[in-house]
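Methods — Computational structure assignment.
A single polypeptide chain was analysed. Its primary sequence is given first, followed by the predicted tertiary structure written as structure tokens.
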Amino acid sequence: MNLPTQELPAILTIYFFSLAGSFQKDPLIDRGGQVAVDVGVVLLAITLVITVKIISPRVEHAILLAIFLSFVLIGLFLIK
């Protein structure tokens, strides 16, 4: 099976390669800071769950229900 092949013009090739390189080497994005923020959010969520569990089981169930319903709604909106 012979598929027709056509080379991209040089300007488009240079544009795509420069565009791909600019995302990886952007000096304004702090990759290490992003990891620290992700770890902080996870630790904050764990601390919140432990604190709520100590305070009241009813509040814990309400928060877990809200989180579950949020994930369901996000999933439904992403599917459409």
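Note: The first helix runs from residue 10 to 24.
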